Amino acid sequence: MPVQLDDGAGGLLKDKIEDLGLTVHTSTGTDKICDGETAYHRMVFKDAEPLDVDVVVFSAGIRPQDALARTAGLEIGERGGIVINDNCQTSDDAIYAIGECALWQNRIFGLVAPGYAMARAVADQLMGKVATFEGADMSTKLKLLGVDVASIGDAQMQTLVLKRWCCKIRLKALTRN
Ligand SMILES: Cc1cc2nc3c(=O)[nH]c(=O)nc-3n(C[C@H](O)[C@H](O)[C@H](O)COP(=O)(O)OP(=O)(O)OC[C@H]3O[C@@H](n4cnc5c(N)ncnc54)[C@H](O)[C@@H]3O)c2cc1C
């Protein structure tokens, strides 16, 4: 979750998940998957001991569906996505793109809130108002294996005036007698 969590928060989440009895491997490149000796498959890593596993689940991230725009000859980003300006206009200013297919300032947003903000900006323009898309709140709340995770504001410190505050809160389990 590199968009939502910085290194420190990612480390805290890893600890929480490992407290549940799971082992988390990060920064581990998979070289190949072959037949296992003690389980169905063997994951062979570039830089760590191999791991025998019964099930492999791929989670490969998001890829913008931009085929229609490609066919139409609109400008597409290097790694996909329809290039838009702050008005959400594509390289053809009569055509707008919003949501997960749109590439704004070289960014694809993988959340619904930025799509809604783009939709509002375009709707306002179509109504004759001046409105631009200026980025969106990337705050996220989710539950990961039962662990509550929330990321609020500029988690990656991209706003220059921000100061770093780090606060670890440990909540003790409350029991009723
Ligand atoms: C498993 C999962 C969990 C998620 N959880 C969250 C979450 O908790 N919170 C959150 O904010 N976001 C979440 N997201 C992301 C969120 O779903 C997307 O950011 C959002 O749906 C993007 O909206 P969109 O309208 O841009 O695209 P989509 O919802 O993908 O809609 C695009 C539509 O266009 C259609 N389409 C594509 N090409 C064509 C074509 N040529 N002609 C006609 N139709 C076409 C597609 O079939 C699709 O129906 C999640 C995504 C996934 C996959």
**Spatial ordering of strands, largest sheet:** 1-2-3
Tell me about the biggest sheet? 3 strands, antiparallel
Q: What is the N-to-C succession of helices and strands?
A: HEEEHEEHEE
Task: Report the C-alpha radius of gyration, rounded.
Answer: 21 Å
Ligands? flavin-adenine dinucleotide
- Helix tally? 3
Quick structural summary:
The chain is an alpha+beta fold. The chain has helices spanning 7-19, 67-72, 112-126, and strands spanning 30-35, 41-45, 51-53, 82-84, 102-104, 140-144, 147-151. The model is unreliable at 173-177 (pLDDT under 50).
Question: What labels describe this entry?
Answer:
single chain; 177 residues; alpha+beta; two-stranded parallel sheet; 3 helices; 19% helix; binds flavin-adenine dinucleotide; nitrite reductase [NAD(P)H] activity
Q: Could you outline the blueprint of secondary structure elements for this entry?
A:
Elements (H helix, E strand, L loop, with lengths): L6 H13 L10 E6 L5 E5 L5 E3 L13 H6 L9 E3 L17 E3 L7 H15 L13 E5 L2 E5 L26
Parallel strand pairs: 4-5
Antiparallel strand pairs: 1-2, 2-3, 6-7
Bound molecules: flavin-adenine dinucleotide.
InterPro entries: FAD/NAD-bd_sf, FAD/NAD-binding_dom, NasD-like
Pfam families: Pyr_redox_2
Pathway: Nitrogen metabolism; nitrate reduction (assimilation)
